[in-house]
Amino acid sequence: MPIQRRLPKYGFKNINRVEYKAINIEILEALATDKNLTKIGLNELREAGYASKSTLVKILGKGTLTKKVDVEAHAFSKSAEEAITAAGGTITKL
């Protein structure tokens, strides 16, 4: 039997892939209203239990934002950027 049929098949694993912890705007809205925050950074997300110390955070656009909030994260989706700036807040990419 040929060697390509004897050996098991394995897929491709990209060594340059960056994994992010996805956090939606609705979670930011809940944090801002519960704790009365105007700035949400990595420390606030870690204290609330949404991110660990070694994870990279990406903000996604599911939900609505009614308060003016300044957000710090590693990455943002386009819809999240638009929603945050439309509410009067600012974004900061780390």
Protein model, in words:
- With 94 residues, this protein is an alpha/beta fold.
- A three-stranded parallel sheet has the order 1-3-5. It has a three-stranded parallel sheet with strand order 2-4-6.
- It has one domain (16-93): Ribosomal Protein L15, Chain: K, domain 2, CATH 3.100.10.10.
- The chain has helices spanning 3-6, 25-35, 42-48, 78-86; strands at residues 20-24, 39-40, 56-60, 70-73, 75-76, 91-93.
- Helices cover 33% and strands 22% of the residues.
- It is elongated.
- It has four helices and six strands, in the order H-E-H-E-H-E-E-E-H-E.
- The model has no long low-confidence stretch (mean pLDDT 93).
- The termini are far apart.
Rg from C-alpha positions?
19 Å
The chain-level mean pLDDT equals 93
- Fraction of residues in β-strands: 15-25%
In spatial order, strands of the major sheet run 1-3-5
Number of separate strands: 6
Order of helices and strands: HEHEHEEEHE
CA-based shape = elongated
* Name of the CATH architecture: Ribosomal Protein L15, Chain: K, domain 2
Low-confidence parts: none
Q: Given the helix and strand composition, which structural class is it?
A: alpha/beta
